[in-house]
Amino acid sequence: MAGMAIDLRAGGAxxxxxxxxxxxxxxxFFSLLRCLAVTTAVLSLVTAARAQNITGTILGSITxxxxxxxxxxxxxxxxxxTGQSTxxxxxxxxxxxxxxxxPGNYQVRVAAPGFxxxxxxxxxxxxxxxxRLDFAxxxxxxxxxxxxxxxxxxxxxxxSSLGSVVGSKxxxxxxxxxxxxxxxxxxxxxxxxxxxxxxxxxxSYSSFVASDISINGGxxxxxxxxxxxxxxxxxxxxxxxxxxTPDGTQEFKVQTSDYGPQFGRSGGGVVNVITRGGxxxxxxxxxxxxxxxxxxxxxxxxxxxxxxxPVYHFNLxxxxxxxxxxxxxxxxxxEYQGHRxxxxxxxxxxxxxxxxxxxxxxxxTLNSTGQPVVLYDPLTTRAAPAGAGYxxxxxxxxxxxxxxxxxxxxxxxxxxxxxxxxxxxxAELDNYGFTSPSLNNSDYWTVRVDHRFxxxxxxxxxxxxxxxxxxxxxxxxxxADNTFGDTNNRVINAAVNDTLTLTPTRVLxxxxxxxxxxxGRGDLHEGETSLVELGFPSSIPAAIxxxxxxxxxxxxxxxxxxxxxxxxxxGNDIYTAVVDQTEMHGRHTLIYGGDFRLYNxxxxxxxxxxxxYNFGRDFTQGPDPLRATLTAGDGFGSLxxxxxxxxxxx
Length: 650
Known about the structure:
Blueprint: E1 4-10, E2 16-23, H1 29-42, E3 56-63, E4 74-79, E5 85-89, E6 95-101, E7 104-111, E8 117-125, E9 130-132, E10 135-136, E11 145-148, E12 162-166, H2 168-173, E13 191-193, H3 195-198, E14 213-215, E15 224-227, E16 230-231, E17 249-257, E18 270-275, E19 283-292, H4 300-304, E20 311-326, E21 330-344, E22 348-350, H5 355-358, E23 376-383, E24 390-394, H6 407-412, E25 432-434, E26 438-454, E27 457-472, E28 487-503, E29 506-521, H7 539-543, E30 551-554, E31 557-560, E32 568-585, E33 588-605, E34 612-615, H8 635-641, E35 645-647
Parallel strand pairs: 2-33, 3-9, 3-10, 8-11, 15-18, 30-34
Antiparallel strand pairs: 1-2, 3-6, 4-5, 4-7, 7-8, 12-17, 13-14, 15-16, 17-18, 19-20, 20-21, 21-26, 22-25, 23-24, 26-27, 27-28, 28-29, 29-32, 30-31, 32-33, 34-35
């Protein structure tokens, strides 16, 4: 199996884990399941390790008034919102442990014959936490109840892992740009956010991504992101596939140091998100956040240039609802969030050939200092009379005859508009003004169902789907636009988690997950270009991947045609399978398991399928064609003649 590595790692005294990472483009998810079956045969050979945990644990000891351990005491732990309870019994040495508890507040009730029952309310359990509660029983009737109050210790003495939990209160109440909960990761100690990310300078055309953070001194973009125990970190660029919303997030933990060996795929830290589930009460919310240019003043320099206020419409809206299907047994939660944003900047400028230049007349072409620019005929190139170098002759009247126009160049011109404003400097730079409206839309759905078969068996499943569209208009409104086409993003993420209590001292849990992100981008004017109509021979379109307007660059002018690498088809798949088992023996808890992942990556990015061509001043400069000056040669003039350089991807 190519590219497969299995590591048995020691995690300190009595700790280890099997970690398998499979990097392949050909294996299916069923290969992963076969590996999972093999794992169950070797679990007994692995030493203790804590599995990738999306839950918490309550543990402690029970003593009598004399301080002696009391065995066989029932400890019932009940989730305050769902009413679901788990019962465990203290061991021969009075130790108890209730693992795999869903994050939230719990009631803990301790009862034994001959002793008063003890109840402790609102015990908070967070993701990856191990909450210790010790109980001292008092002699009396079990019908008499003692309610215990007091603060839960802030210092977690049952684990050496360092990290911090961002709870639901912070997630709901702190302001978030775009309602991305991962923006709150920077609140945790030992986390440094890339300044470009903090300023929002990320996106399809940025060299930065939203996961560019450093945890505990690790390199940017080397951290693990988990949602309900399923990895969402894309193999292509180590960015997360999607960001959960505040409404759909229960809490998350940023683990910065000394976390267990099960988190081996991280060069810095781990961000572990737990999504929200339903409860016994029906809850819902509706929200809308918006910004609009009508609520803002125009910028100072826009007023100075007599430019209108830029268009800006931003709407972020959503709804969430959760509640019971069967009280104390089955719960649901669903949400939707939509994002609509359209903008148009104050304006941009380009430099285009004038009407005279398009007809071949360069008699009024000047450089930036006001000096005339002379064009030389490349077909007159000959050896210098003095015997050293070469010379050329000037086009008569500094006009290129129409008969000399290249066929393709002449046909391209009908897709390029004329200047629409006076240019700067005598060279008439920036003589074309335009605005580029852009569109950014997204839709996000998630559904989660939790079901409790019995006190010993519970399961939940979640499905998340996102769609995104980035679109912008070109400056010309024709096939010659030099702008990327529409970018579509689609994400699917699913997770199933099952927990089964096999015996009072043995608990098995397994988890399956799938994450897929697809990014596609095409030509802004898909299917509108015919290279034959542009003058290319028919053999060219028959041999290339697709027909789009060629990428044309000219010295001193704005380029035409889409940028290189416009066509994108990128797929990133992550298959996850996790199995672990917990065994309690006296004061010792043994946890062992395996985490298997299959990564599929199908990247494709095209180049310039219709060719990329550059036209400099050198083909029309002179009198010495090998000597460049500021007063000879023109890039557009070279284009008209068809003399330049370039390549085409076949």
